[in-house]
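Box S1 | Example of a co-folding query
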Amino acid sequence: MTQQPIREIIIVGGGTAGWMSAAALSRFLPRQQTRIRLVESEAIGTVGVGEATIPTIQSFNAMLGIDEDAFVAATGATFKLGIRFTDWRKRGETYFHPFGRFGHDMEGMDFHKLFLKLARQNRCADIWQYAPSAVAAAAGKFERPHSPAKTPFDHLSYAFHFDASRYAQFLRQYAEEHGAERVEGKITHVTTHSETGFVDQLTLADGQTLSADLFIDCSGFRGLLIEGTLETGYEDWSHWLPCDRAVALPTQNVGKPVPYTHATAREAGWQWHIPLQHRTGNGLVYSSRYMDDDRAEALLLSNLNGQPLSSPRKLSFTTGRRKSLWNRNVVAIGLSGGFLEPLESTSIHLIQTGIAKLIALFPDKRFLPVEMAEYNRLMRNAYDGVRDFIILHYHATQRNDSPFWDHVRTMSVPDTLTHKMELFRSKGRFFRFEDELFSTPNWVAVFLGQGIVPEELDQFVDALDDDKLAHSFEEMRQLIRQNVARMPDQSEFIRLHCAAP
Ligand code: FAD
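Box S1 (continued) | Returned holo structure for flavin-adenine dinucleotide
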């Protein structure tokens, strides 16, 4: 059978997921061959949050050929070098999860194992002092990597904090320039084909009807097509991630924006602090089982630095993911596909993953089951890996000062996470499952930050001479410090290259 190319695509929703999908598809599908339309309803609006990202966003922007300075200026973005976690392991303790690596491996041995060997002898500094991004973050510095690198440590791995609505606008302009068409209106009715069950037609409130071969459901938590029409089913993970509410409130900046996200644990959840060029994003994520909405709002208001710029915005959600993200001729991308709370800023990354895998497995009108099955397998793995990493932050706590922390500390966790924790706890070993997002330095930062320290070490680390090792570590630390000392302040870098107009 010959291929029957997709000629019409409808994207339902114009939030971050919708416009990222429209931008990417319009970049790769010539407008003469495939018509791309995006339907959104101003009356319904978007979720309006989602400001912190991880470094993978750079490859999305690069794939679109977006100039980074133009993007930073247009979205009021700042640079993000990692996340500072306060009060997660114990009250009064802080650790940093930096982007990029710690130090470098030596003689084939993982850096963190060598670090642990020296740490047992008190012959090294805190682990974050060997991570260029963490040292630069602590000093408020930023610089793009040199090309070619002058030393192994002048490469700062970075992402952005940006204004989500400005990002959607920015991508809308890009997508429209590449031929995508926007349709304003509220979808009130969806019909399916009587034999195949495929989505056939959308009807808008004004009576207009729209048909397509492929539908991308970016309609947010409601999952208009994937759930509302196709009843695909949802895997609820709230027994592992009990936070189900958030209250968000932007404030004026106080002082210079720092180049990192700050996540502070609270009595039944945690608070985010995300500095942009023109304002600061704040919010409290909490579990309604352990804290009511009034208490959450009061707690957030009592922990703000700057003047509020609006009234608090309340959101509720159920952590989990669709059982299948691709069902018949509908692919769910963004919140319609699932939601993991923003602790490690992974939602926009999962949108990007959904788009990249859709492009890699792009269907024709036959919708081959093997392609859909592979997409669903890859996306399930992507969500599940992130889920385990987020649960780790809660479960590996020593806090016992509230019923919420007692619950997450003592709850059972997925077997896949137990396996990783046991491997690390015994001899400091870590293995990435397939192409899961987070890799050894990410897990090591959180394992150690949350107090999971290996009981023994691989016997191979004994082969290295302790004095030489301590000397190399000190050289690394000094080199990183010297590199960072030469870097400009983040605010100065932005002023020179990419200030918002
Ligand atoms: P939405 O923004 O909800 O967009 C849905 C779209 O569908 C809208 O355009 C709406 O008009 C349209 N629509 C719906 N129904 C209809 C209809 N009947 N007819 C026509 N149009 C319709 N992610 C991160 O990566 N980093 C973060 O720091 C982060 N923080 C977050 C904090 C919180 C509290 C929450 C809840 C989420 C956060 N996220 C974060 C997730 C991030 O906000 C989302 O992944 C992102 O905004 C994408 O949302 P979306 O486009 O899927 O949905």
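The chain has a mean pLDDT of 96. The chain has three domains: 8-51+163-236+318-367, 101-150+386-492, 245-316.
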